[in-house]
Specification:
This protein has about 210 residues and is mainly beta. Helices cover about 10% and strands about 45% of the residues. It has three helices and 15 strands. A seven-stranded antiparallel beta sheet has the order 12-11-15-9-10-14-13. A hairpin with a 2-residue loop joins β11 and β12. The two termini are about 30 Å apart.
Length: about 210
């Protein structure tokens, strides 16, 4: 399964970008430029030489479009709606961001269906060192209507993970050493805000059973 991001780029062209929630690399925030209600982020990454203008890229699970590139950095722009619904408002210079490029048509779906559209933010309530792995307890505002199910999928900062200890407004995930080292989970601390995208299959089922309210 993988991650959908529908971007209407003009009246004559549209693209469907898919991700899997498997983090490829990091980017570091170099510069933050505010222009009206928009925010431009300049990021450095080893992927920069391979990026192209108009390419979609997931940043901590947020699907953003590359608007300019250089040999060692690139720029994306976040609109006010994105800033309000994600943790991008808390990004600062030097922050390490999880990156995933869209999946190629002949690639494997190693994660789960993720759109790159963050549903809401959650807070790291507790981090428990299990002497070989880490358990992260996450809490979120249940009034948003989002839910998790035991052993279901969740995307945290763009990383595809499996939930357990699912309760209204909370769940836990277990992080193995590879994931801990190769994503920005190793930088997270208790009290930090993270981007959450809930399983799209669960969201459709919930909408079918509960309807619009």
């Amino acid at each position: 399964m993988g991650n959908f991001c529908l971007i209407i780029e003009s009246q004559t062209r549209s693209t469907i970008e898919m991700f899997t929630g498997i983090i490829e690399s990091f980017a570091s925030v170099k510069e933050i430029i505010r222009e009206g209600t928009n925010v431009h982020f300049e990021l450095s990454s080893k992927l920069a030489p391979e990026l192209k203008i108009d390419q979609s890229l997931a940043h901590d699970g947020v699907c953003l479009t590359v608007v300019s590139t250089s040999p060692d950095s690139y720029r994306v722009t976040a609109i006010d709606e994105t800033i309000k619904k994600t943790n991008l408002s808390q990004w600062n210079i030097g922050k390490k961001v999880n990156l995933e490029r869209c999946m190629s048509a002949n690639g494997r779906f190693d994660g789960h269906i993720v759109q790159g559209h963050v549903d809401q933010v959650g807070k790291v309530k507790r981090i428990s060192d299990q002497q070989g792995s880490w358990i992260f307890d996450i809490e979120f505002d249940q009034n948003s209507g989002n839910i998790t199910v035991e052993k279901g999928s969740i995307t945290i900062n763009g990383t595809s993970l499996t939930c357990f200890n699912s309760i209204p407004g909370g769940f836990s995930v277990a992080i193995i050493p590879y994931t801990y080292e190769h994503t920005n989970f190793h930088q997270l601390q208790e009290g930090d805000w993270v981007n959450l995208e809930f399983d799209i299959v669960g969201k459709y089922i919930q909408r079918i059973t509960k309807g619009y309210s």
